[in-house]
Each structure stands twice: as C-alpha cells, then as structure tokens.
Amino acid sequence: MTRDWRTPIELLVLGAIWGSSFLFMRIAAEPFGAFALVDIRLTLGALVLLPFLWRDRAVFTRAMWPKLAIIGLINSAIPFLLFAWAAQRSPAAIGAICNAMTVLFAALIGFLFFGEKIGTRRAIALLVGFGGVVLLATSKAGGISVGMAVIAGSTAALLYGVGVNLVRRHLGGIPPAAAAAATLGCSALLLAPFAATHWPANAISPLAWGSAIAIGVLCTGYAFLLYYRLIQRIGAARAATVTYLVPLFGAAFAWLFLGEPVTPAMLAAGLLILGSVAFSQRAPRP
Q1: CA–CA dist 245, 9 (Å, integer)
Q2: pLDDT top residue among 8 and 204
Q3: Cα–Cα dist 192/198, whole Å
Q4: Cβ-based neighbour number of residue 286 at 10 Å
Q5: Separation of CA 197 from chain center
Q6: Rounded distance, CA 237 to CA 44, Å?
C-alpha cells in the first residue's frame, strides 16, 4: 500500500490559500471598498470555474437559476461583503478566527431548521465557540475596539453555515464545481450595479489590484477546485479539517507581511473556537 502523501500537503496548501484571503482583503478592502472588491472576487472566481459550468450546462434548467441566485447571495456575496467590511476595520486575524465558526453554525442551522441531531458534544462545542466569539468581540486590537468587525465576521460564518445546508439539500445532484460557478456568477451579476455605483474614484495601486485578483483567482476559483477534489478523495468530514488551518495562516500572514500583532485575547478566543470545532468533530465512542 502506498502512503497518501497528497492529502496533508493539499490541506496545508488550501489552509494557506484561504488564510491568505484575509491578508489580501486587508490590503485591498480600503482602496476598493467592499462592493467593488467583492464583485471582482465573484467575477474572477466564476470565470476560473466557468469551464466546469459549460461542461455540465445540461443539468441546469431555467427553473433552477432563481434558486442558484439566492444560494449565491447567502453562501458567497453577503458573507464576502461582511468579511471585506470587517477587513477595513480590524486586523486580518479577526476575520480568519470568526471564519472558523462556520462548522459550528452549520451544525446549529441543521438542527434548528433541517431536523438534524446536534448531540451533547456539539451543543457544548457551540457554547464554548460562542464564548470565544464574545471574548473576541469585547477585546481591542491596537487600542481599537473590534466588536463590530467580530459581529460582521460571525454573521458571515453564520451565513456560510446556512449556505452549507442549502447546498447540501438543493444542489446535491449537481457537480460541485459547476454549481459553484453558477452561484458565483449569479452573485457577481446581482452585485454589479452596487459595484458600479461604489467604484473607487481614486487610482488603485498595483498592490491592491494584485491582492484583488489573488482573492478572486486563487482564493475563490482555484481554492474551490482544490477543496472539491479533497472532498471526492477523502470525504467532507476530513476535508473540513482545513478549518483549523485557516486562522493560523491568516494570523501568521498578517503578522509577517503587515506587522499586525496577535493579542492575548485573539489567541485565547482562537483556542476556544478552534478547540470547540475540534471537539465537535471528534467521533463519538462506540
């Protein structure tokens, strides 16, 4: 038997890519503004995945497109806007830590609205994770309160949790890359009028443009492909372990390239949230 060396490497790469998205947002959100930046991200991500949508275009009926648009808004456009808004007001690590709550929110939404069992383990994990969010929201970074940014990032994670359940139930029979291209494309079109009216009046630096392009091409389009390939090979549960890596890379990149400090409150909140996610994912004893 040959050892599967690809999986840990690809998980690390995906964690680094998604972690870097918070660095790129921190750089590009201020000069572009949230609407313009997110529409660029959605458009480029959809273009990367467009060949898969074209290949599987026969499965998309006309009646499906309103549903795809709604799921795209919930699972992509609005969370991206919230994270971009938070990136204008707080260190990159804040959004990366809040993003880790997605796994717990997905379990909570499944329990509240889709009849899934949550169990004692996940209920405890949710409480601990929320405690981490409260700790993070009441902390300060560089003497500035980050409470509103934490609320925005946590709301984005909540919407991701809703989106996960909607995709699972309404797009289960559609090839994932094609479904992602369709939802991203719909979101880009719906957001385009807002991006046009909020397009920055000042010249954008090459660094900001490069960051915006990286978010769309690398952190959205390519990352989706890598994530779906992992799911096909190792299953959704193991692929979800990338959640633990994103905050680590997000905070490390922000410290390394932007000089943003990682405060004790960030560390404590991150440990609470990531620990609760790990605890919720542990298989129960037989």
Answers
A1: 12
A2: 204
A3: 10
A4: 3
A5: 25
A6: 28
Please give the pLDDT value at position 2: 46
Q: Are 220 and 45 in contact (CB under 8 A)?
A: yes
pLDDT score of 3 more than 60: no
Q: Is 144 helix (H, G, I), strand (E, B) or coil?
A: strand
Distance CA 8, CA 190 (A): 37
pTM, full prediction: 0.91
119 vs 85, residue with greater confidence: 85
Average pLDDT over residues 132-160: 87
Q: Name the residue with tokens 């690398």.
A: 218
What phi and psi values does residue 145 have, to the nearest 5 degrees?
A: -70, 135
- Cβ(118)–Cβ(53) below 8 Å: no
Taking residues 242-259, report their average pLDDT.
91
Mean per-residue pLDDT for 7-22? 92
**What is the SS3 string spanning 20-64?**
HHHHHHHHHHHHHCHHHHHHHHHHHHHHHHHHHHHHCHHHCCHHH
Are 32 and 212 in contact by the 8 Å Cβ rule? The answer is yes
Enter the tokens of residue 42.
């959605």
**CA separation for the pair 182, 188 (Å, rounded):** 10
